[in-house]
């Protein structure tokens, strides 16, 4: 693995290039750098979400996700290198099953709304989808392992489920709910 940064303002990127972990330089507009940036942004949004009140189990899960996203960013920064293991995808599958089991079935589409924590989880979900698209675009041009794409796909699903969990989390003893889309179909069903 390449050397770790010892200083931040190197000025080597002033010409529009950046160094990868294997010491090669690429355009800051390359697909690889876009994918790395999307994963970094996602990790930053999860950091903001972690500032909110939430169940300890969700907090522990999200901290682990941050570590795995850092692994993913490292993997993207070194072409051909593997840091994100398939076990990380399996851990997301387990978390999805665990948290989904306690939620009521959806009756309609939900809005990305509700509590602040749930809304931030929805932002994380959409950024995860964007990061996934960036990784797919990179994979269309360069050889990538399947795990990064699978991890981001699963993480987006998990963030949707966690938004629902966080909409129900209240410290005052009340129980919250999802914010349902007011569709014509639901309006007709309620009128009948």
Largest sheet: 2 strands, antiparallel
The ordered string of helix (H) and strand (E) elements is: EEHHHHHH
Q: How many strands appear in the DSSP assignment?
A: 2
Give the mean pLDDT: 88
Top-tier CATH class = Mainly Alpha
| Rg estimate, integer Å | 19 Å
What fold name stands as the CATH topology?
A: Hypothetical Protein Ta1238, Chain: A
Query: How widely separated are the two ends?
Result: 64 Å
Coarse shape: elongated
CATH superfamily: Cobalamin adenosyltransferase-like
Low-confidence stretches: none
Counted up, domains total 1
3D structure, described in words:
- There is one protein chain.
- The chain has one domain: Cobalamin adenosyltransferase-like (Hypothetical Protein Ta1238, Chain: A, Up-down Bundle), CATH 1.20.1200.10.
- Helix 1 (31-49) runs antiparallel to helix 2 (56-77), helix 3 packs parallel to helix 5 (146-168) and helix 4 (116-141) packs antiparallel against helix 5 (146-168).
- The longest helix is centred in the C-terminal third of the chain and has 26 residues, at 116-141.
- The model has no long low-confidence stretch (mean pLDDT 88).
- Strand 1 (17-19) and strand 2 form a beta hairpin.
- It is mainly alpha-helical and 192 residues long.
- Strands 1-2 form a two-stranded antiparallel sheet.
- It is built from 6 helices and 2 strands.
């Amino acid at each position: 693995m390449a050397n770790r940064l010892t200083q931040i303002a190197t000025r080597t990127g002033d010409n529009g290039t950046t160094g990868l972990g294997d010491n090669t330089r690429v355009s800051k507009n390359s697909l690889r750098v876009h994918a790395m940036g999307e994963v970094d942004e996602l990790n930053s949004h999860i950091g903001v979400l972690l500032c909110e009140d939430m169940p300890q189990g969700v907090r522990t899960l999200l901290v682990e996700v941050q570590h795995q996203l850092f692994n993913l960013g490292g993997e993207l920064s070194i072409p051909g290198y593997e840091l994100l293991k398939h076990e990380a995808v399996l851990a997301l599958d387990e978390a999805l099953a665990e948290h989904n089991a306690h939620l009521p079935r959806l009756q309609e589409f939900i809005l990305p709304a509700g509590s602040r924590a749930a809304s931030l989880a929805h932002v994380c979900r959409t950024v995860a989808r964007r990061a996934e698209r960036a990784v797919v675009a990179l994979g269309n041009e360069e050889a990538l392992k399947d795990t990064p794409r699978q991890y981001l796909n699963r993480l987006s699903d998990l963030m949707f489920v966690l938004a629902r969990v966080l909409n129900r989390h209240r410290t005052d003893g009340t129980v919250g709910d999802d914010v349902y889309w007011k569709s014509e179909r639901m309006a007709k069903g309620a009128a009948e």
